[in-house]
């Protein structure tokens, strides 16, 4: 799936622009979102508000529905129930979990980056992204031949060049070496003012999530728990899912949670 920037009105899911909301901080609200494929229940009763410039981490075991939720927000699939409300026009930036270029498709880095809307940033701001993500020497290279870390930098640049107000990072650190991971975390933590935006970060890196996030949502087809890391760490649902792996390198623990209704902290 390509990096994509979609205005809210391209979403298939019921997205409405709500200019009457009194809380000016809200950017996007998901209300009672469910997604089924036939009898298979992928997501149930999801309520999430994301505020302007807020970073939200989304965690959950394999198959919890994290990527499905991202697809719903991106408008790539349509929810079975519920609604999404964009409180201001959404400019979405997306760094996908995987980016597979077919071997027969010539796609240079400069070709991919040229898809961004050139009018959204000044040339100095664009150069800032190129310099800080060390892209200049990669521009004529084929996407197919980039390393994992180089690919992530290009995809992040592609998303940022559109100056998103909601940046969705789907497991951005997958396949990166520890030094590159630290560097990338620092880069997204310290975005300059002209790139500040809300972020939804899907991550399996529990240590980063619990150290580096202000708000964490724990998904397992429904929202098991959510809150600040300090609140989450003592919640029963979090303990069931991740408890004894939290102080060790994270290894997923199969989850036997049987809830069908959302239960929040
Ligand atoms: N189009 C589809 N048809 C049938 N099942 C699907 C489809 N898309 C996803 N699923 C199933 O829905 C569940 C949730 O998938 P999803 O990719 O959203 O999980 P995830 O939390 O992102 O997992 P991971 O951490 O492994 O990336 C999985 O069991 C998956 O097999």
From TrEMBL:
> Is ATP-binding one of the keywords?
yes
One Pfam assignment: ABC_tran
Q: Which residues form a coiled coil?
A: none
Is Cell membrane included in the keywords of this UniProt record?
yes
Q: Which UniProt keywords apply?
A: ATP-binding, Cell membrane, Ion transport, Membrane, Nucleotide-binding, Translocase, Transport, Zinc, Zinc transport
GO BP terms: namely: response to zinc ion; zinc ion transport
Q: Kindly give the InterPro entries that the UniProt entry links to this protein.
A: AAA+_ATPase (IPR003593), ABC_transporter-like_ATP-bd (IPR003439), Metal_Ion_Import_ABC (IPR050153), P-loop_NTPase (IPR027417)
Could you tell me one molecular function GO term of this UniProt entry?
A: ATP binding
Q: Where is the ABC transporter domain?
A: 28-245
Alphabetical list of PANTHER family matching this protein: METAL TRANSPORT SYSTEM ATP-BINDING PROTEIN TM_0124-RELATED (PTHR42734), ZINC IMPORT ATP-BINDING PROTEIN ZNUC (PTHR42734:SF9)
For this entry, the protein name equals: Zinc ABC transporter, ATP-binding protein ZnuC
Record the organism.
Psychrobacter nivimaris
């Amino acid at each position: 799936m390509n990096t994509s920037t979609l205005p809210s009105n391209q979403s298939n899911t019921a997205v409405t622009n709500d200019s009457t909301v009194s809380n000016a901080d809200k950017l996007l609200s998901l209300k009672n979102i469910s997604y089924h494929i036939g009898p298979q229940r992928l997501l149930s009763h999801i309520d999430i508000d994301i505020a302007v410039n807020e970073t939200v981490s989304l965690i959950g075991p394999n198959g919890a529905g994290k990527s499905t939720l991202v697809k719903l927000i991106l408008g790539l699939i349509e929810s079975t129930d519920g609604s999404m409300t964009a409180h201001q026009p959404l400019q979405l930036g997306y760094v996908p979990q995987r980016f597979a270029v077919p071997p027969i498709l010539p796609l240079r880095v400069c070709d991919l980056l040229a898809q961004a809307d050139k009018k959204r940033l000044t040339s100095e701001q664009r150069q800032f992204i190129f310099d800080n993500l060390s892209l200049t020497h990669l521009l004529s290279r084929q996407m197919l031949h980039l390393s994992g870390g180089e690919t992530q930098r290009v995809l992040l640049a592609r998303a940022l060049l559109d100056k998103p107000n909601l940046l969705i990072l789907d497991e951005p650190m997958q396949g990166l070496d520890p030094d590159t991971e630290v560097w990338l975390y620092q880069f997204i933590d310290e975005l300059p003012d002209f790139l500040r935006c809300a972020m939804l970060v899907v991550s399996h890196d529990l240590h980063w999530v619990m150290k580096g996030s202000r708000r964490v949502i724990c998904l397992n087809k429904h929202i098991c728990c959510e809150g600040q890391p300090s609140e989450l760490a003592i919640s029963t649902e979090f303990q069931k899912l991740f408890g004894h792996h939290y102080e060790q390198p994270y290894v997923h623990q199969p989850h036997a949670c049987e809830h069908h209704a959302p239960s929040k902290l």
